[in-house]
Amino acid sequence: MEDKVYKAGEDYEKEFSPRDYLDTFYNFDSGPVAEREIIKFSLQNLHHTFSVGGIRGDVLIDIGTGPTIYQLLSACEVFREIIVADYTPQNLQELQKWLKKEPGAYDWSSIVKHVCELEGDRSRWQEKEAKLRKTVTRVLKCDVTKTPPLGSAQVPLADCVLTFLAMECACLDVETYRAALRRLADLLKPGGHLVTMVTLCFQHYMVGPKKFSGVYLEKETVEKALQDAGCQVQKCNCVPLRYSQAFCDGLCFIVARKGPSA
Ligand SMILES: C[S@@+](CC[C@H](N)C(=O)[O-])C[C@H]1O[C@@H](n2cnc3c(N)ncnc32)[C@H](O)[C@@H]1O
């Protein structure tokens, strides 16, 4: 393990290895039990939100997508178009590899099968992979610390903005986090939903031998930041699950709705 602690910004571009990240946190079959339980928690909440929860629409924008697709597997059934965005070029490349079925792409099949099982038919996993590949229409560069976060890209206002485990990495202090959430709310139509998963009391996580830090957030800080960004919290599901490869004190899945005039 290296002593240095890497931070938001250029460190991601230079030091973040998508494969180390995927192997550490998304090895569903033979990775650590803790990480597997957290993936299941995420998938269950996403399934609920985008099925019985009734959140659906034309456009979903996922911010801080990283090299992962698990967070889009339920949503791709109920949105016409998904736009994904991340700060780190090598994450966007890793994503494109999977989207274009290129050799060496990460194998998400176990996780896709699990989501299909939640939806009632494990056998349709290849159909779901094809559906997601078709629904993701754009892969964009973004920086949530900048206004606008998607730079010069022209995107429609979204019915849903998703951001999973990313804002606490992209922001190094609470003020930056609050400003980032306001930028995400600006991407939403009035009445649209912001769906997020946050690591509570986050300090750092391991990506291979490298330690990356972020902002320490308590549940109340997250809820207040959402409210101040014009979003009303509709669901806040916090659990004391902890990663084996990250230092935090639980996880929180949140659904918030942007007010009609925010
Ligand atoms: C822990 S990963 C989360 C990836 C994925 N969403 C997941 O659920 O596993 C954190 C992500 O935040 C992204 N990130 C870091 N700084 C950012 C910024 N300023 N704007 C947007 N994304 C950023 C990183 O590139 C990385 O993909």
TrEMBL record:
It comes from Microtus ochrogaster (Prairie vole). Pfam families: NNMT_PNMT_TEMT. PANTHER family: INDOLETHYLAMINE N-METHYLTRANSFERASE, NNMT/PNMT/TEMT FAMILY MEMBER. This is Indolethylamine N-methyltransferase. Signal peptide: none annotated. Keywords: Methyltransferase, S-adenosyl-L-methionine, Transferase. The keyword Transferase applies. Belongs to the class I-like SAM-binding methyltransferase superfamily. NNMT/PNMT/TEMT family. The gene is Inmt.
